What we know:
mainly beta, Immunoglobulin-like, 2 domains, 11-stranded antiparallel beta sheet
Amino acid sequence: MESVEGSRLTQTTVEIGSNSIHQEQVSSNTSNRSFYKNGDIGFASANDGEFHFTVDPTVNRDAVSQIRRLRRHIEAGNYTPTDAVEQNGSLLIRAEADDASLTERFRRRAIDTIDSYSGTVLLTEDGRIVDLKYDMTFSRNDRSTDTEFSFATKAVGSTSVSEPSWLSTARADAVTFTARPAGGDDPKYVAIDIEGDGSLPSNISGSLSFADGSAFGQTSSTISGGDTLYLAATPENRLTVSVNTQPSNVANIDGRTFVNVNLNGVAVVNQSLSL
């Protein structure tokens, strides 16, 4: 899978076995690897082993294999079957799109408008996505971004996954993240407690999705074990990210809230909280 958002190219390879998942993600300035195994917490190695931290242990195959992202585009795009093609001895259905709707899945990613969209998908007769390519221009907080994405499946039914060599180091040195509601009764926001002695990258991005909207933001603050990271939404639905300083002058968030936090492109928090 390859994705270009703005000027950032990301290449992702995912191996999915019967009880384990190994993902490698390489972009222009980072190299991240994640490993998940049934009955074990997930671990990530970032920047070729410079950082190790835990990742969401409840990850499932749909999330890691990008099936959710593919569904988001199939549902939003006006994909219409055009013809049938043969690939590796199998008959596939080709569908194309030249427009997309701003669905709830896109709104959760803090996308305000979809300005242009075109895509092509290849499907098996039973609906499995074999190949998807799309170009999209969207606006977020009055900023326009161009995205190119390509996805292809390979070696279906024949992938075995071995534990990576860095896993023992990650188990010993990984930094952990625990998200919790904060702020009392009013306003409410999210606190993330950071535990461990390992070093951490400072490129932090995150989002909150809640009943009245969503907020997206980022910071380059340095964090380490013992710190608390705070995420809060402003009245304009922008995300404030602060370290060890509780936010002020923010909007109250009430009810079920989905929390996402990424360090150098690796999701370290990806869960739902009741605020």
